[in-house]
Amino acid sequence: MIANFAPLKSDHELWNGYRIPNMRVIKTNLSYDGKETIRIVYDTGVDTSVLWRETSGGNKIAFPMNEVGEFLVFKSRKHVVEVHIQTEVCSKGVCACGIIFRNGNEIYINNICNGVSRQGFIYIGNHEDGILDEEYNFDKYASVNNYYQALWNNKYWIPGITPEQHEIHESHTISLQNGVVISITRNFDTNSLELLIESKPYVESFDELDGIVSCRYKLFRHRDGSYAADYRGYINSWRVPTNESLRNPTNHMNFGVNETVYQCHCPQGTDTALADVMLRAYARNYYYYYYPNYETEHVLGAAMCSLQMPCLEQTNGQTWPYNTFVTAVIVSNVSIEHNNTHLMCLFNPVEGKKHRVQWYFDETIVLNHTINANSTVLSPVDIVPMSGSECNLDKEIRCSVTVFEANGVNQSGPSSFSEPVYLMRDEMRQSMVSNVCVINNTCYFEYDHDPLDQRYVCYPALDPFSWKRNLTLHRVPGDYCIPGEIQCESVPGVAFCKSKTKQCTCADTFEETNGACSQIGCTMAEQNDTCSSISFAICNDNVCSCASYAELNATHGKCDIKRIGSNCTSEVDCKHITGAACDYQKTNTCVCDRQFKFSNGKCAPKAPGDLCTPGGDDCDNIQGDAICSPKTKQCSCYDTWQVVGGKCQTISCTFSDPSPCKLISNGECRNGTCTCSIAAVLNTTTGECKSRGIGDTCYVDEACTFVKNAKCDSERNMCVCDDTRKLDGNACVPKEPGDACEPGSKNCQDISGEVFCDAVTEKCSCASTHTASNCACVQKRCTDDHGCGGIAHAKCLNNACTCSVTSELDITNGLCKSKGLGSFCLTDSECGLVTGAICDIAKPRVCVCGDKYEMNDAECILKQPGILYLNRVDIFVAQYIEHDEHFAIFRCDYSIDYGFFYQVKWYLHGEEIYSTDILDSPKASEASVLKDVELYNINATVFQFDSKLRCQVSAYNESGTFKLKTVESNEFVPMTISSTSITFSRGQSASFTVNLYVPFGCGTKSRDCQLQYLLHDPSDPYDCMDSTIAVLHGDTCGGRIEGSTKTDMETFALPKYETTITILAKNNNNYNLKRDFELKLRTFSDDNLKNLWQGFTITIEVHVTDDHLIQHSPCYSHVDPHMGTFDGRWYENQNSGEFILVRHKKYPIEVDMITQPCSNWGPIPTCACAVNVRAGGDIFTINHCSGHLTKYLSNKDQALKVYRESSSEYKIILPTGMSVNIYLMTWG
Fold first, then answer.
1. Distance between CA atoms of 359 and 497, rounded to whole angstroms?
2. Residue 992 forms beta bridges with which residues?
3. DSSP secondary-structure letter at 114?
4. N or C of the chain: less Cβ packing under 10 Å?
5. 765 neighbors 736 (Cβ within 8 angstroms)
6. Torsion, Cα of 545, 546, 549, 550 (10° steps)
């Protein structure tokens, strides 16, 4: 039972409207559910009220209540409970007209005596409420309802009752404190009351009560404690005098009440208490067609009502009186048990007493046992001494036990009788006297012949009450037989023993002809008249026979539909059996197909855990994604799915709690479900998420991270080795000297030593000062300069060939070339080949013109002394690595002239943020440079989208006291975005571009160096049902850039990283859509952990327009099939074949359906029997055209999300947000 709670109403507004969750209430039954009942009703057969007592074993005793007055029905000795009944003379005999009961300190009356109706409480004691609560269930209803009006013209069959008098029947049910339940019914036909009393042995039984209910078979206990064997005077002995009547106000008083109630408690275990319950219902789909459905009833709590935790409630008052007569000595629990050889009378002996057991056939004593008996038996020989003797098998059998004093002479109390048994009831006859017939009150043994006609024999199994024709004689239709035996096989033709008549009967396709069974004749023209009346029969070769899909059952002579194990010759024979096929190559029987298993006589779809053959399609019919495990040879769900109710179901997770996916090797939480991580791919053979290898499909580089040094080839969409590696097996290993490369690329940069890509040979080659050795380029060994083989600008230093200090390696040809302006340096001497050049003390240290020179076409030209050349200022960015940390530097670049002082100021959006001191020319160069971290610490907002940075240089005279000139740079924007407000139609896409002008990189130890752009809606949970935005980019986060490598360092090249991001607005289920919302774009890197790279953020406004027509108009196909388009057009499609319902113009998304004739009537009408949905590399199908298939045919991209809404409805969400709803109908 489910308890539903209404919203709370209280004086405290905090709780107003709060609704307690649904709760399951569980009532427990004790192990003994037997009950005894007593009815007091008016019997029209004897024209008076009659008391019926029915024991827990189902046996009854009855006697008339023809006394007039008030009588005690029962009175409890333990509880303050008593019930009185009042009778009066009615039109015929005596009728019950009043019921009065006391339940604790409340007295209630229901009285119609003398034609006056009185009903209600006549006394309400202390601590009682006098309210008709759950203890008093009063129900009034009409005897018949309008449904029967068409069957009976006078539906109000009670004389004098008119249609306006609705309450023509009353029923009162009362639960008393001693556990006894009484029901009071008013019978308007006899104008009397009827009383039903129910008691269970584990509360107070009737034998423990005083009153007329304390009667048993031949055991009537009178009010004075005496016993009688019949009911004469019994009712009158329980007459209630006026001074004891509950109607007498002097008896309306309080008694001390001790009432035990029980507490509700939590169920032990929650498997059944909190389990969901599936309720069958019928739902209506979009087109108002009803189809079977299931609804789930959820509960969040449960309470159990049992008898485990008692509580005692006490009320003070007078002591409850009851009869105190001496109880007679009577044995208890007298019963008869039987086995295959005898009956046994069992009872509980009274200690110190002797007992006599007697056996009765009806009222006749047939067997006496000694006074010392503790248990006695009655064997079949006592009942049937010999064949042909008088038979008592059809009589009621009881045993009685009488208690005697120890002397064995004086009787201690009345006899106590058992419940009766009947030997001729099948269960006892078949076990004890299965070899006896009872014919004309005479017993005969099995196979005895009729003394009057020897052709007839006693066959108890066939009929234990009459003679039957000898079964050994030749049978003809109509002869008796024993069901399950072979007597009817002697009948010519095909006959069987009919279980109902126990006669030989011709099979359905045969008819009786001259004592034989012959096949019924027919012609093809008349087969509908002759054979159609026979189930599953057809006319074949001019006789009626079972159809090919049926077989003749010799046990009951009918054509039965073939089942598993039936003979077959073709697939047609077994086609009607769901999941079956004909094994005509081996056993020629109907067997379960590969995708099914034999269970309970049927072919049930295989479920996870069932045996299968690896590599086959045994598990394809399991809902969800399942495979046949090569290890266990059992159907198993993919690792990213779980078994739920014999099916495979996705594992739910959330971004805040991805723990359900942690047990899946290579698994992760994405879009609200567990799936293979981006660097893994589903192995459809094993069901595991295997690490992607070289050659596996990919769309982003992250998909290939399980192969070290691999990337995703965007043109071929497959994992390949990155540019600096080559393939060796399934591993990407470093390139070696001599491996292929692309001139001008970085293919060779990871080869140890000085290496370059030769433009002529297009191979990785060692520099002129190096030679190939052990997959690396090592310096050539030498003792002097001649040992370097005349390499230009080469020297022998420390016994190794190297470029001279004034030269550097040219990475385009591997030769040593003279250092020039911009070349890396540590000392001024390294720049000596360029007149006027020095090594800049500001990092990165490169050769620059000294302050007395200015650069002109890679040369340093001597300036004229005393002239200020400050004409232009630029912001210049560069990068370098120091102590394995990447730095981006910002240089305020200008001409520094000897003899002048300079001051540099930095501005952000026109506001000054930093200023240097006024410094002389030798110190000015270093002061004009700021590292990225220094600039971030000065003002973190420098590193934001569209921030505007300027630098300003002021020149002072030779003493630094007078400002001569000020020049300002143009604006420098570290990162730009093409647009921060985007408008487009739903379902369409829009793009924007992000440009980064600050060099990004990582330390030399970082193998993968990336800066990611994260684009998201802060209010969006990002699961497939509710997401409002999809990012269409190779990286689903929004985009990324690769960090600088070592060959990019130490240069003055101005970097520019450009990334384009495309977004698509989605339908987030039921068009609960956002139209105007904001997206957040930010940067993130887990390789370079500087705060500045985590801090770029910007808000993008999105405005989505909707086409109202598309939003509210579906495209559909249903039944036979009726078609409807998005723009509201409809038409019929009575063609068989495969048809495209929807195909996206831009993306690989398509919905198809397959139609075929609905029945064997002809080519039309046609019905849709399959739907296929495709998105990218995913294909999901529901196909009932030939067999039953519901599964992913491919799930490479995991772009389709399939939800089973009910037993007959599926919802599929496409990546664009469009939903496909599929209803499975049992017709049409």
1. 40
2. 1061
3. G
4. N
5. no
6. -160
